[in-house]
Design brief:
325 residues; alpha/beta; Inosine-uridine Nucleoside N-ribohydrolase, Chain A; two-stranded antiparallel ribbon; 12 helices; 15% strand
């Protein structure tokens, strides 16, 4: 039996790869997956989740919930310009040789529980055992903390992909996307005292695959998951080529899952981290100097932040899990 986890996600492309990595790793037992607005609107994200699960055999009894449709205090800013209009590289455009859709539209249940209902059920069933892995904005977690934080104290840990500590942001010069989309949610979560391990751009930008590497990976077998990796990453790779001048796909969210699989991949010193929520120029910036923080913004020192990573070993883990039979 692996480490029991809940995944909270806004499926874009790297979220999809992270989910597949988790499902292909015996070290993890995925109990539930919930969606949140972010890379795409939450309804699209839920559709994407079912499309991803259609590539594999989901774990028996996997719970699925749909969460927040908007950030706490500001309009949603999606990242479809990076991930494609559907968030997964425009999968509807891919066809088999006979002209049939390579990725048929998934059939969704008529109704889904909310993310918070799913979390409550999981926490009741496995108190003290669960790790929550957040791959998108922290809106769902912030909403869960608001009425009564006590149930969330039963979480074993929270692993969160987000922030930029000593490197530039990826949506503004100072802000990482997940924090920027809902900085007020991130501030509430960082102040909560939950045992958080943050996996920021400081480490995720060091773990990447080139277009050639991805094509080579996909050519290594007939597994539809490998074909999906190549198809889904195409638009994001074109974006980085155009904007950054390099054909690299950064494994942001997969690294967070990899840290759940093997915590020794990163070193995580404790830091006081707070989020800028007022200054529009620096909105979403993750600050670490307590002297620069207003009193109400000071964050709990329970946050561990990954600042160094064994990138080669992380990339090897990812490739091994996606090519195993």
């Amino acid at each position: 039996m692996g480490r029991r986890v809940i995944i909270d996600t806004d499926p874009g492309v790297d979220d999809a790869l992270a989910i597949l990595l988790a499902l292909r790793s015996p070290e993890l037992e995925v109990i539930a997956i919930t969606t949140v607005c972010g890379n795409v609107p939450v309804e699209q994200g839920t559709q994407n989740l079912f499309r991803i699960l259609g590539l594999v055999k989901p774990p028996p009894g996997l719970l699925i919930g749909q969460g927040a449709a908007r950030p706490l205090r500001q309009p949603l800013q999606t990242a479809t310009h990076v991930h494609g209009p559907d968030g997964l590289g425009e999968l509807d455009g891919f066809r088999n040789q006979d002209g049939s859709p390579r990725y048929p539209k998934p059939k969704l249940p008529r109704a889904l529980p909310t993310a918070l209902e799913v979390w409550g059920q999981c926490l009741h069933r496995y108190p003290g055992e669960l790790t929550l892995i957040t791959l998108g904005p922290l809106t769902n977690l912030a909403l869960a903390l608001e009425p009564d934080p006590a149930p969330l104290r039963q979480l074993r840990s929270v692993l969160s992909m987000g922030g930029a500590i000593s490197v530039p942001g990826n949506v503004t010069p100072v802000a990482e996307y997940n924090i920027f989309v809902d900085p007020h949610a991130a501030q509430r979560v960082f102040q909560s005292g939950l045992p958080i391990t943050l996996v920021p751009l400081d480490v995720t930008t060091k773990v990447a695959m080139s277009r050639k590497e991805i094509q080579a990976l996909a050519a290594g077998g007939s597994d539809p998951v490998l074909r999906f990796v190549a198809d889904a990453t195409g638009q994001a790779l074109s974006y980085t080529e155009r904007v950054e001048g390099a054909s690299l796909f950064h494994l942001h969210d997969p690294l967070a899952v990899a840290v759940a699989i093997d915590p020794t991949l990163v070193q995580t010193p404790p830091l006081s981290i707070a989020v800028e929520t007022e200054d529009q120029t620096n909105l979403g910036r993750t600050r670490t100097d307590p002297r620069s923080l207003r009193g109400f913004q000071k964050a709990s020192p329970t946050i561990q932040a990954a600042l160094t990573v064994d990138a080669a070993r992380a990339l090897k883990l990812f490739k091994q899990r996606f090519t195993r039979k």
